Amino acid sequence: MNPDSVIDAASWILIVLGSGFCVIGALGLLRMPDFYTRMHAASLVDTLGAWLLLLGMMLQAGFSLVTVKLIFVAMLLFFTGPTATHALARAARARGLEPMAKDNPESGQTDERQTPS
């Protein structure tokens, strides 16, 4: 088996998996009931999808300047993704958007969304 074909197959598997995770993250944005769960789905799944896509592109590029640039993009995503999600959650919480609570008879909480005032 040719080493180039193995690298091509591995990179395409990573690219297809990354694309699949990005689609799952987009569906999570549509299907989740709450702002916080939507944000959670988008941040985790899309970050993993982006990393898999970047790894697949790095394998396709080989050892070149393109790979170095993709590594910088990956590091940028690594640091900005969780930071942006945390800042967004804190801003929503500061505006008064409470997480959706499950029905809990002891606490008196119901399954209602609370909107900011």
User: What shape does the CA trace take?
Assistant: elongated
Q: How much is the radius of gyration in Å?
A: 19 Å
Largest sheet: none
Structural class: mainly alpha
Tally of helical runs: 3
The percentage of residues in β strands lies in under 5%
Question: Can you describe this structure?
Answer:
This protein is mainly α and 117 residues long. It has a domain at 3-78. The protein is built from three helices and no strands. α2 (35-61) packs antiparallel against α3. The chain is elongated. The model has no long low-confidence stretch (mean pLDDT 85).
Descriptors for this entry?
mainly alpha, single chain, 3 helices
Tell me the layout of helices and strands.
Blueprint: H1 3-31, H2 35-61, H3 65-94
Helix pairs in contact: 1-2, 2-3
Brief rundown of the structure:
The protein is mostly helical and 117 residues long. The chain has a domain of 76 residues.
